[in-house]
Amino acid sequence: MLSSSKTYSVLPASDLARATAWFRDKLELEPEDTSEQGVRYRTGGDSWIYVYETANAGTAQNTAMCWLVEDIEAEMEHLRGRGVEFADYDFPGLKTENGVATDSQGKSAWFQDSEGNYLCLTQPAVPM
């Protein structure tokens, strides 16, 4: 049953107002729905992101969410123009050049939101 169910991403924020401003100012996302508990953003198609307030925000050291994009360099240039900083990595199995890691699966680039969550852009090797 789950293989045909839609999914969505949930991101923690230690300061919901700060996170909401960051998503608006950096990613140009406007809330679709807000409540005292959190903020919901609609993204491509039926996808969405739910950001909620918790003291545990920013403690995970793994990728929390990715966007599938068709042109990673263009997306990165646009986000950099809005002040988003991409991470550079150089360790076994992952090396970036100008923020982009390339492997047989495609290209990926990571950045952190205002709450310390790791987000990424991914351009699959096979066009979407």
Q: Which descriptors would you attach to this protein?
A:
128 residues; alpha+beta; dioxygenase activity; 2,3-Dihydroxybiphenyl 1,2-Dioxygenase, domain 1; VOC_core; lyase activity; globular; six-stranded mixed beta sheet
Please explain how this structure is put together.
It comes from Leifsonia shinshuensis. Residues 5-124 form the VOC domain. Keywords: Dioxygenase, Lyase, Oxidoreductase. This is Catechol 2,3-dioxygenase-like lactoylglutathione lyase family enzyme. The structure is a single chain. With 128 residues, the protein is an alpha+beta fold. The protein has one domain: 2,3-Dihydroxybiphenyl 1,2-Dioxygenase, domain 1 (Roll), CATH 3.10.180. The chain is built from two helices and ten strands, in the order E-H-E-E-E-E-H-E-E-E-E-E. It has a six-stranded mixed β-sheet, with helices on one face. Strand 8 and strand 9 form a beta hairpin. It starts with 8 loop residues before the first strand and ends with a strand. The model has no long low-confidence stretch (mean pLDDT 94).
